[in-house]
Amino acid sequence: MTMRFYQSLSVNVPKKTREFCLRCISAVELTAKTIMLRCQSFKARFNALAFNVCTLSVLGFTVITGVFMVVPVVYASGQISGSSSTGAMGQTDASASERETRTVPALRSTVYEQLARAQKIADEGDISGALAVLDAVKEKSFSMNSIERATMHNFYGFIYYSQDDIQRTIASFKEAVAQSPIPISFEQTALYSLAQLSMAQSQFSDVITYLKRWESLNHGLIPPQNYILKAQALYQNKAYEEAAYYIESAIKGHEDEGFLPDENWLVLQRAIYFEMQAPEKVKDIIIKLIRLYEQPKYWIQLAGMYGELEQEEKQFATMEIAYHRGFINSASDTFNLAQLYYYHGVPYKGAKLMDHAIKTGLLDENLRNLTFLAQAWQSAQEDEKAVPVMIEAAALSTDGKLDAQLALLYYNLDNFEKAIDTANNALTKGSLDRPGDTHMVLGLSLYATQDFVNALNELAKAEEFNSSRAAARQWRKFVEKEKVAFALLSEL
């Protein structure tokens, strides 16, 4: 490549200048492979940030690596125009006459050699040594031109980033873009790095500022990653409507070019519309996530959104599909599905699901779960299965509500002695929702054992409550007649 480039130089260029360019290009080639490997390692370390392929610009002799590093740049004097972005959206490329042009100085070989030396030392793992070389270069910065100072600060930024010193990395890139004039591509790369670093530091307003400055330099299409980053920052700043505009623009532009949107883009879009309280839109995005990147959690989220939209049948159907596909694995999802079975008239399935989950340890054997399981068995007309569960639940409860339910279960099973004991426990614990009903269950259980006097006393107490007055009065009159009849039979 070096010889081809050397031969392509105009014969009108002085020989001395051509030889200088050849030395610069050779030096860049020697370090390019090492730099690219370095970029790959940094890409893995900071995968939240976009990563640009290392590029070699013959016009400016520029090697740009990754997001965080613009390594030794050798610029010949002259006018350098801004380059357009590809694979993007927004405005179309401007004509060459409309593009900003800058006259930038050359990076001299003596400065470049020191910067390349610092790079080599850093690649060998001697960060202190690399910084020492840069510090020595910095002492002479008063005699350096803008591109030399910018490149030096860029090197500082790269080394600080290798030490995870993000604050100094940001400060170094700020210094780099503060130099003037510098090539537009150089400035854009540093600005985008600053935007990404600011996002990592939760400096969301700075992210937006750097991206706007990047766009002011751009005369071509805007990459979707810029819009995504801006949408992220706006979302964090709670500017949801603006964030929605940019995430929509990024996804639509990407799809118009025939590409699928990244999963994380759709996740961000879903979060934005969720904050905007647009459940219909959120539902549509989740359906898209299922279609493109099916994951168990998206099925659960879709069911939740159907519930939010009060589309209970679709919520129930979605959860059942998720269950049969093996996506219901957590305690909370299992409990929610059991509740859906119960409320949609399939209590037996809900009880079976709860029973299995408790026995396998997925669900805790606590008051909530046992109470619901007992109610599900009872609703499924499986009273005998409900009783032992209700006994456990009642033992954990500090009030008498579950004991009252258990007393009714015993009464329905004609186990009147236990119904009497359990009803008395319920009344002793207290805090009943309908105490009159419990007095009536107790009275009827006493009547069934032919304890007419106590039965009439309990039914009289049941009459004191509005909720049970009418039924208790009728039963009291019936029991009084039965008492008289029983007495007559006893005399015979």
Provide an overview of this structure:
The chain has 492 residues and is mostly helical. Helix content is 68%, strand content 4%. The protein is built from 23 helices and five strands. The chain has helices at residues 2-8, 15-45, 109-123, 127-138, 146-162, 166-178, 184-200, 204-217, 224-236, 240-256, 263-275, 279-293, 296-308, 312-324, 331-343, 347-359, 367-379, 383-396, 401-412, 416-429, 435-448, 452-462, 469-491, and strands at 55-57, 62-65, 69-73, 78-81, 101-104. The strands form two sheets. The chain has a three-stranded antiparallel β-sheet, sandwiched between helices. Strand 2 and strand 3 (69-73) form a beta hairpin. The longest helix has 31 residues, at 15-45. The N and C termini lie far apart (126 Å). The model is unreliable at 1-87 and 92-98 (pLDDT under 50).
Short description:
The chain is mainly α and 492 residues long.
Uncertain segments are 1-87, 92-98
Q: Name the helicity range.
A: 55-70%
Q: What is the strand tally?
A: 5
C-alpha termini separation? 126 Å
Question: What descriptive keywords fit this protein?
Answer:
three-stranded antiparallel β-sheet; 492 residues; mainly alpha; two-stranded antiparallel sheet; disordered N terminus
Break the fold down into its secondary structure elements and pairings.
Blueprint (H helix, E strand, L loop, with lengths): L1 H7 L6 H31 L9 E3 L4 E4 L3 E5 L4 E4 L19 E4 L4 H15 L3 H12 L7 H17 L3 H13 L5 H17 L3 H14 L6 H13 L3 H17 L6 H13 L3 H15 L2 H13 L3 H13 L6 H13 L3 H13 L7 H13 L3 H14 L4 H12 L3 H14 L5 H14 L3 H11 L6 H23 L1
Antiparallel strand pairs: 1-2, 2-3, 4-5
Helix pairs in contact: 1-2, 2-3, 3-4, 3-5, 4-5, 5-6, 6-7, 7-8, 7-9, 8-9, 9-10, 10-11, 11-12, 12-13, 13-14, 15-16, 16-17, 17-18, 18-19, 19-20, 19-21, 20-21, 21-22, 21-23, 22-23
